[in-house]
Amino acid sequence: MVYDAIVVGAGLAGLVATAEMADAGKKVLLLDQEPEASLGGQAWWSFGGLFLVNSPEQRRLGIKDSKELAWQDWIGSAGFDRDDEDYWGKQWAKAYVEFASGEKREWLRSLGVRFFPVVGWAERGGYLAEGHGNSVPRFHIVWGTGPGLVRPFEYKVRAAIEKGLVDYRPRHRVDELLTVGGSVVGVRGSMLEPSKAERGEKSSRVEIGNFEFHSEATLVSSGGIGANFDLIRDHWPSRLGAPPKHMISGVPEHVDGRMLAITERAGGLIVNRDRMWHYTEGLKNWNPVWANHAIRIIPGPSSLWFDAKGRRFPAPNFPGFDTLGTLEAIQRTGYDYSWFILTQKIIEKEFALSGSEQNLDITNKSIRQVLSRILPGPPPAVQAFMDQGEDFVIAHQLQDLVAGMNKLTGDHLLHFEEIERQIIARDREMENKFTKDLQITALRGARKYVGDKLIRVAAPHRFLDAKNGPLIAVRLNILTRKTLGGLQTNLSGQVLNSAGSPVKGLYAAGEVSGFGGGGVHGYRSLEGTFLGGCLFTGRVAGRAIVNDRR
To answer: Which helix (H) or strand (E) element contains residue 490?
Structure first.
């Protein structure tokens, strides 16, 4: 069969690009090393958060957003400071903010995607107006979470398979991009034995044959390095301190980054290798699917955050404000874990867990189950971690809580008197409506947003008042997730070489391209921009290949 294009990687970016090309009548070969059960890649596991600007959902909640404000926030967060490496990333950023404030929502709605009515406020920043963070809530949760976002593109690809336009071959691992005279002309690789591994589970790497396919266009959409701890440590930036000795993985084991090196050998340029996005609020999954399976807490702003020695982190290292800033603060302590201390009232309202499987009410589109969140008690997924997860300590007395925390780690670094002093000092600040404690100022400010007041931020209260208990401590681990650098691409998704020229026949989309240009986020993300980056780059690259093949 003669193919108009080959797509390497059947995650969200690969599905979007394949669907775009098939809609234009092009014949596409879609290859992936994993079994068919993993179609959709990491996106399927996601909470389904998308960055939108000036949306109807925002306006209904009284949020005044604009393209100009979003660009101000993006630039303040990205911190672009590398002329060559950041050039195309910045161009993609401009295009993406335009997309997010323009046709993105209506394009998705035309495919059947709908959104949860309450817009979340992720990465709140805590600096000045031109610093890092979202000035307003922009985190739009897909109704159906990650699976709900993957589904319309999967349907499109499966319909194209039925029409003979798409040849989907799972268990086909690409080992080499074929080149002739500097142009990429196809792929060569290994067929892996059939596997019954379920989605996210480790699959066999036993080879049962070889393959070679040719095309004038090859698109790499193979993801990042999130499960490859060796590569993460190799590229760990010194600005974030020493790389963690202990990490847990927010992505399945097949997210190994191997196609980056393969594409580099074919002439593609990798930039911003030291930019990455890892979370600080990781829990060890009590019911793991993959090795070192981690779940991230998406916290509200009220929990007190302490380092491993029991010292409260200073402003603005509050829950949900600055992911990488807090990661740096944690790594500077010499330990790779930290603690939340909170109350029962806080966990009932402020703890959300990231992931489609941790939010089955929204994933299953059950309004009845969503409404049950207003009932007393934590959400079922959170309660399961409290009951069975190894990172939780629960006690009615602070002294017992601290003893349990020391027992959990075995490090015995915490002193009851020091933690008690800090919590009492914080509780004293609750006597007045004004305070010098910026975390209290922030949570009171958050409750002026109706979305936070209704479902996200607990009413301010004293931690040591027994009526708000019991007290809860949560050990937080470093959770690996996203690669912010990658293959440098122009605004058509063409991979560039070291001279800045396109490698003929080679394209990239999604995380492998740093979500656009080799680093659309710069140093920091505003959240909701990873899935969106896969959608946007997959769409752009797919359409560019169609135009180039006319």
So the answer is: none
